[in-house]
Amino acid sequence: MNSDYLVGKVLENRYEIVEMIGSGGMATVYKAKCRVLNRYVAIKVLKDALKYDAEVVKKFNAEARASAGLSHPNIVQVYDVSEKGELDYIVMEYVDGITLKEYIAKMGNLDYREACSFAIQIGRALECAHKNHIIHRDIKPHNVLMTRDGVLKVTDFGIAQAASSETIVAGHNNMGSVHYISPEQGRGGYIDERSDIYSLGVVLYEMLTGKLPFDGGNPVSIAMMKLEKEPQDCRIVNPTIPDNVGKVTMKAISKEQHLRYQSAQEMVSDLESIVGNTRASIEREETDDIYKTNRIADKETKELYYMRKEKSRHKENNGKVTMTIFLILLGLIIGVGTYFYMAGGRQEYQVPDLTNMTLEEAEESLEKIGLKLSEDIEYEESEEVDEDLIISQKPGANQYVKKNRKIKVVVSLGSETELIKVPDVSDITFEDAQVQLEKLGLKCKKIEKFEDGKEIGIVVSQSPKKNTEVPEGYTIMLYVSAEDENEQVVVPKITGYTETQAKAMLEEVGLVVGSVDKASSNSQQGVIIAQTPAAKTGVVKGSSVNITVSSGNETEEKPVQMQKKTFTITIPEDANDTVRVKVVANGKVIHDKNHQKSEGTVDIEVQSSKDASVQAYIDGNLVVDKVISFN
Questions:
Q1: Distance CA 377, CA 374 (A)
Q2: Fewer CB in 10 Å around end: N or C, the chain?
Q3: Of 268, 250, 270, nearest to 260 (Cα)?
Q4: pLDDT of residue 450
């Protein structure tokens, strides 16, 4: 079977090849229909000429391993991998769209809001990879797919490597694309997560300006430019780029690693603050006509591009007419957006009058309109303003400020009274802080908030600050580290297990069993035969997983003709000398024994009267999940 001519073929009696959608030096990519799950998938098939090159095959399989362990909405998911038989291939999520490179080429430089939104999505994918100790090492717009809804998905972990405390040196076979790789990759130096951040910075630079920081000449000269020269500031190339966006971009592509963002999360956080996003959602709070108009313009522009791309396949002779209409409409959209931008000005928020409010009332009033109360609170005695009420504020009432601006206030201590100096109760538990404050005659209020890297229940900050003098009975605001309400976990595969086993597996990752339904099936009674959400899906911690449990075959059983097939499992080279091999077929354990690494492979006999769903585990890790056909 030729890897370059598979259209119309069916792989493993499951994947029907529909069309070729791409081809590179290492592999050919096809669109295929999965007959088992009735969905489209993308299949990357290693080229025939390379299948006998051990190093290439190792690299190809490394891509599958690197991607398979990642579950994130901005990463193309790997469903299956075939390393045995006539072809080597990876089965992946099919993304109906274009590459980010194609989109940039068609649109030119993007509006900074859209560019930042795209960079946030790529950054979140890198956050996931880096938390799993995977460095992509080849981030570029060619490796980012874009759906019709504007969702980006990072793909091609073909040269990804696991991060460790040891130095990772880039060789000539994994330099990636020279325009996007970091200076340290070009010189064969130490590579870590910050190398991916540099590449993301270059992509952001290109989206904002339509140009690359370094271009021209051959790959070697470009690599040398990165080592010897500073890139031209993106704000010079495109003066419409806001200063804060320019600073984020240039920081990300700093020549020295220690001058860049030290994590993808830091860069994403800065970008989110610019476009007014939160970690829970990248959808902007549309509070004025300016951004609504720009969003409409972005959406209509994308739809026009997709429409033009689709029609061009059938009506190539109308290309010039379509382009003319596209440019006219694009000009109108940009004109309308510019009008509203000039008429509406910058997106700012009017500061409310906080005087004579309590701190709690002021904080609630500010949060409603996207502003914050500064933790740096000053206190003064006052004959005119009652104790615990705000005397003054900065910025003052009715002034306009940017979103998330912190408003400083001065709070009344009332008339002259004996004051108590507030102690420092940060970095201890809330309970210990409460005891300290009560001994001094002070009260406290607990405000929970997520603080990355802080132990749950620890005071991370306080208001007022230490050494501030307050009257007896005064309430100290304590900000205490709490669980992240939006923390994502991956749903484990619980089909094939009993309800009791599934409950333990879900609790281990912070999930619970939801509704339990029963259905007749050929599986053993009491075994889970379906789950929602599906395995490997990312969900919020604490979510429930609904299950369907087999009630057995309620119809009269008829004798069936059993067939046998041998299923081969390869023991990994990096495995322990002794490994535990467990095989489950159609929800039933058919093999669970220790084997020596020196055996190399383990042959398991599978008996069934129909297609069998088989999962193989080595030391508890799922290594194969496939359907064996008995037709």
A1: 7
A2: C
A3: 250
A4: 74
- ∠ CA 234-238-241 to the nearest 5 degrees? 80
Which residue has tokens 């997106």? 347
Cα(361)–Cα(374) distance, rounded to whole angstroms? 14
pLDDT, residue 3, reads 61
- pLDDT of residue 325 exceeding 60: no
Task: Report how far residue 300's alpha carbon sits from residue 326's, in angstroms, rounded to the nearest whole number.
Answer: 10
Q: Nearest 5°: phi and psi at 511?
A: -120, 170
CA distance 76 to 591: 33
pLDDT of residue 631: 67
Residue 138 falls in the annotated catalytic set: yes
* pTM, to two decimals: 0.46
Question: What is the distance between the alpha carbons of residues 206 and 110, in angstroms, rounded to a whole number?
Answer: 9
Around Cβ 123, how many Cβ atoms within 10 Å? 28
Using left for φ > 0, alpha for ψ between -120 and 50, and beta otherwise, residue 582 falls in: beta
Of 138, 156, 196, 270, the active-site residue reads 138
Statement: residue 496 has pLDDT above 50 = yes
- Asked if residue 434 has pLDDT above 80, the reply is yes
- Candidates 409, 389, 463, 454; CA nearest to 433 is 463
pLDDT band at 555 (very low <50, low <70, confident <90, very high): low
CA distance 10 to 357: 71
Taking the C-alpha atoms of residue 306 and residue 147, their distance in angstroms, rounded to an integer, is 10
